[in-house]
């Protein structure tokens, strides 16, 4: 099997698993308990907080553990929105290509009377800093722009947006779920006020994440109950997962340069190979892109069929269509970069990890070429394109 869907999830690293097992076997006490077993667990919890903080340039007291990226996004955005609303600021700026954890939270806030501006991204899939500047208003409570896109891998100008927001005294949150552990992230240098991360995107376990909140900023609890996480997130801490996440993040950051160089070599080889397919196009910027992300559109085929046939050939990949939700709506990200519906349906995302090899890339290129040719042979749309009854969108 060739696994090329690391943006969906990653395999938990050996070091993370070992740390989790040790935690479950030796430090299984409740961190809130006062006896030694509990206090040892609490020490482990605080050390995990320090380790996570250290990887993103934060202080330990600025890290709050959550159940993952979605919860961190929800909590950051709602906290900033309600804090703004109390000061008469009910405007939020975001982008059209955010993850649904952000977009759906913003939709709910809109129903509650907030005004949302979703910035366009152009065909490169990148937010313009000048657009953020132009959208800022007196009543803007929050700017929330993702660090790296989960579908097309585009890296956003976070440092410039951070500087702009700090200058204008507007809170800045970034969903860095796809970036942390893969590209250098420094909340101080980037002037980020709030940042979401998720364990399972960098070889940690699933169901655990963290929210960084700059010291002194307002944070509101989404879950009421005990006083865990300084009263900002009730519930007995999932210590094994937290320790696994801290271990995985330190490991990813320690090997980041080498891993990124390896993955970008594979990525560029894959892009060059797949580009040979006629009427195919890379989605998103070539230059400002996560090291492991490849995303293509192909004319005349359906992404779902492509995925199923690749699965038959032992390749795990992903498509932009929201097949998990049972709908065949094309990806909002591909639509936002200007792909028409029919082309956005024929998309393929390959997201690489450090264990992928060049031989695997050659296999993927061969199989993708073969499967695309096979599907096109059966496609009525492709036949019309070939006959000239329809125009190609991708030349
Ligand atoms: C950009 C982005 N944000 C948020 C999430 C949600 O993270 P989690 O699965 O940890 O809730 C994901 C997961 O795919 C993501 O890619």
In words, what does this structure look like?
- This protein is of the alpha/beta class and 395 residues long.
- 42% of the residues lie in helices and 13% in strands.
- The protein contains 13 helices and 12 strands.
- Strands 2-8-7-6-5-3-4 form a 7-stranded mixed beta sheet, with helices on both faces.
- Strand 5, helix 6 and strand 6 form a beta-alpha-beta unit.
- Helix 3 runs parallel beside helix 4, helix 8 runs parallel beside helix 12 and helix 9 crosses helix 12.
- It is globular.
- It starts with a strand and ends in an 8-residue tail after the last helix.
- The model has no long low-confidence stretch (mean pLDDT 96).
- The structure holds pyridoxal-5'-phosphate.
- The site of pyridoxal-5'-phosphate (PLP) has 13 residues, from helix 3.
- The site of pyridoxal-5'-phosphate has 13 residues, from helix 3.
Please give the share of residues in helix.
40-55%
The assigned structural class equals alpha/beta
Reported for the largest beta sheet, the result is: 7 strands, mixed
Number of strands: 12
- Termini gap: 33 Å
Number of helices: 13
Q: What is the strand arrangement across the widest sheet?
A: 2-8-7-6-5-3-4
Question: What is the rounded Rg?
Answer: 22 Å
Strand percentage lies at 5-15%
Order of helices and strands: EHHEHEHEHEHEEEHHEEHEHHEHH
Global outline: globular
Q: If you average the pLDDT, what whole number results?
A: 96
Give the helices and strands, then pairings.
Elements (H helix, E strand, L loop, with lengths): L1 E2 L10 H13 L9 H21 L6 E4 L2 H17 L5 E5 L4 H12 L3 E5 L9 H7 L4 E5 L13 H11 L2 E5 L18 E5 L10 E5 L25 H16 L1 H19 L5 E3 L10 E6 L4 H10 L2 E2 L15 H5 L4 H4 L2 E5 L6 H21 L1 H8 L8
Parallel strand pairs: 1-11, 3-4, 3-5, 5-6, 6-7
Antiparallel strand pairs: 2-8, 7-8, 9-10, 10-12
Helix pairs in contact: 1-7, 2-7, 3-4, 8-12, 9-12
